[in-house]
Design brief:
Layout lengths: L2 E5 L9 H9 L5 E5 H4 L7 H9 L3 E7 L7 H10 L15 E7 L17 H4 L1 H9 L3 E2 L3 E3 L7 H16 L6
Parallel strand pairs: 1-2, 1-3, 3-4, 4-5, 4-6
The structure holds flavin mononucleotide.
Flavin mononucleotide binds next to helix 1.
């Protein structure tokens, strides 16, 4: 199985979590890392090139820092310009492939509960991506989420990055 990890971080040099995750998976067999902000500094996405990349992989993982309860802007743009035609709602090019999400949040786990200050769960907040997965006929992987990033020690992050390698390379869709 070939896996494409699309990393969308507006400021990867300043990143702690997403950079560590990216470094952890970079030497894995059959894993391609594709950074949107680095590839498109002008933010003009080449849809045909992106579609070629999608076709060449079986599992697509969207990796990003959670921003305003959503994806960074360039990843939303990617959805809008890449998932069209044969790769869109009437197409079948993505049917049967797997879609995963890996995201990090400042808010601690308990804040992403009905009783927490963010009020909604990550399962609820990630529904737009899950709904996109569904309409494209893809299989949605259980998301990989790291909460409360400011309280994560270096040791915990190293352990979490090892878990991330397993997530990216695992055989099944569910944990
Ligand atoms: C513009 C912006 C919006 C953010 N929105 C959220 C948010 O809605 N919820 C949250 O928990 N953290 C939010 N954060 C915090 C980021 O998720 C956090 O800094 C990031 O996951 C850390 O990952 P990194 O070390 O790879 O940068 C936001 C950060 C920025 C810069």
């Amino acid at each position: 199985m070939k896996t494409l990890v699309i990393v969308t971080h507006p400021n990867i040099e300043q990143s702690r979590i997403n950079k560590t995750w990216m470094e952890a998976i970079q030497n894995q067999d059959n894993v391609t890392i594709h950074q949107l902000y680095a590839t498109y500094p002008d933010q003009k996405i080449d849809a045909a090139k992106e579609q070629e990349l999608l076709s060449a992989h079986d599992r697509i993982i969207l990796q990003f820092p959670f921003q305003w309860y959503s994806t960074p802007a360039l990843l939303k743009e990617w959805f809008d310009v890449v998932l069209l035609g044969d790769f869109g709602i009437r197409g079948d090019k993505l049917r049967g492939k797997q879609l995963g999400v890996a995201t990090s949040t400042f808010g601690p786990a308990e804040s992403y509960q009905p009783t927490g200050y963010n009020r909604y769960t990550m399962e609820e907040l990630l529904k737009p991506i899950e709904a996109t997965n569904n309409i494209l006929g893809m299989s949605f992987m259980t998301p990989f989420i790291l909460h409360g990033v400011s309280n994560v020690t270096d040791e915990q992050l190293a352990q979490n990055a090892a878990e991330y390698v397993k997530y990216v390379t695992k055989k099944s869709v569910t944990v």
